[in-house]
Structures are given as structure tokens and as C-alpha cells.
């Protein structure tokens, strides 16, 4: 005889969707799926999460609407933000508010550099070295788009080395605005007068010198005269 199923033990559809959204968000926040990476396919998510296709589809759609995921036709679904704050910030920090982006960067990055000098681990230093090398290689190659991405990766590595989860989340929320302002500053070509050496910033963090690190982080984010 087939045992009866207690209907109360089966969560309603809305609850299943909410739980699935929470699971997807948790994996993103934990770094299992990095910003810019493609998440597993729908069948893979169905198997991994133990829910139906419609539930997965609705959860993904909700996170896409919130600006966390982006569905790209013929390519898959990608992580574009770690939380719902990013698209809100991106709308606020439009291209005509470059000065505000720089001020917010300064507030975050100077303190991040100070904390990184205090808390960096050997793994953090290795990540910083790799990011710095990639940034310099992109510069030498004259590859503007690659340089903008590598520059953002280096600054993100500094923030990660601060080991402050809230700071990292807030910084990630302005990532698109930062890349936009850097790309605008670089223009169509990487010219010598636009180069900013970040080797001293990494050296200061490695040395554990908090004040030096803070000075280096703030040096290239000084407001323009009269700003």
C-alpha cells in the first residue's frame, strides 16, 4: 500500500521559491559563484537543490529582476552582483556623477588599505601580487578593456585583504560605477600620463604599514583642485 503524503509536510510553492532564492543567494555570497561567472544550468540546479524546474526558473527570474543575476540568450545565466544593492547604486552613480564615485571610492579604499596592512595573510599577498602583475601586463599591452578589469581586480583584492565582509559587500555594490569611471578616464588608449603605479600600495600592505598603505590608497583619489 502506498503511504499517504501529509500535505502539511509539503511546503507551498511560494515558500519553495523563497527557499530556493535564499539558497542561490547564499551560494553567491559564499563565493561559490563569483561575479562575472556563469551559474550552473537549470537541470543542474534542479538536481543540486532538489526542487522542480519551475521553482528554479522563478527563483532565477527573481534574482535577475533584483539585479543579482543576468540571463544572456544563448549563453547562460551570470552573476552580475553579490546583492540587490548594486543596481540601485549603479543607477545613482551615473556617468555625470564621476566626482561622487571618486569620493565614495576614497572612503572605502583608504580604510580598506589600512585594514589590509593590518590583516593581510600570505594568501592575500599572493593574490595582490598576481593582480598587480595582471594589471601591469594589460597596461604594457595597451589593452584598455583588459586593464580596466585588471585594475578593478587589484582594488577588489585589497578590499578582500581587509577581511571585513560588510566592507567587501558595499564595495562590490559600486564595482560597475568604478569600472565606468576608470574606463572614462583611460579613454581609447593607455597613455603614459594616465598610468598610476600601484606597486607601492601593495608594498605598503606587505610591510604591514597602515599609514603608508592609507596614503598610497588616497594619493590617486585626491579630488581635483576646486572640486
UniProtKB/TrEMBL annotation:
Higher taxonomy: Bacteria, Bacillati, Actinomycetota, Actinomycetes, Micromonosporales
Gene Ontology molecular function terms on file: DNA binding; DNA-binding transcription factor activity
CDD domains assigned: WHTH_GntR
Keywords: DNA-binding, Transcription, Transcription regulation
Protein name per Swiss-Prot or TrEMBL: GntR family transcriptional regulator
SMART domains in UniProt: FCD (SM00895), HTH_GNTR (SM00345)
Highest taxon of the lineage: Bacteria
PROSITE patterns attached to this UniProt entry: HTH_GNTR
PANTHER family: REGULATORY PROTEIN GNTR HTH (PTHR43537:SF47), TRANSCRIPTIONAL REGULATOR, GNTR FAMILY (PTHR43537)
Amino acid at each position: 500500500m502506498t503511504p499517504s503524503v501529509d500535505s502539511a509536510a509539503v511546503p507551498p510553492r511560494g515558500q519553495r521559491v523563497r527557499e530556493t532564492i535564499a539558497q542561490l543567494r547564499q551560494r553567491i555570497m559564499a563565493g561559490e559563484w563569483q561575479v562575472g561567472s556563469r551559474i550552473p544550468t537549470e537541470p543542474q540546479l534542479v538536481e543540486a537543490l532538489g526542487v522542480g524546474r519551475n521553482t528554479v526558473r522563478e527563483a532565477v527570474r527573481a534574482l535577475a529582476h533584483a539585479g543579482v543575476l543576468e540571463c544572456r540568450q544563448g549563453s547562460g545565466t551570470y552573476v552580475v552582483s553579490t546583492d540587490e544593492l548594486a543596481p540601485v547604486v549603479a543607477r545613482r552613480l551615473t556617468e555625470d556623477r564621476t566626482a561622487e564615485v571618486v569620493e565614495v571610492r576614497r572612503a572605502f579604499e583608504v580604510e580598506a588599505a589600512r585594514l589590509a596592512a593590518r590583516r593581510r595573510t600570505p594568501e592575500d599577498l599572493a593574490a595582490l601580487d598576481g593582480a598587480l602583475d595582471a594589471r601591469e601586463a594589460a597596461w604594457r599591452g595597451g589593452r584598455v578593456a583588459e586593464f580596466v578589469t585588471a585594475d578593478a581586480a587589484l582594488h577588489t583584492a585589497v578590499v578582500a585583504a581587509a577581511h571585513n565582509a560588510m566592507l567587501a559587500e558595499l564595495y562590490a555594490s559600486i564595482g560597475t560605477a568604478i569600472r565606468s569611471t576608470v574606463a572614462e578616464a583611460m579613454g581609447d588608449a593607455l597613455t603614459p600620463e594616465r598610468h598610476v603605479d600601484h606597486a607601492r600600495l601593495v608594498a605598503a600592505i606587505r610591510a604591514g604599514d597602515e599609514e603608508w598603505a592609507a596614503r598610497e590608497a588616497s594619493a590617486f583619489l585626491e579630488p581635483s583642485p576646486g572640486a
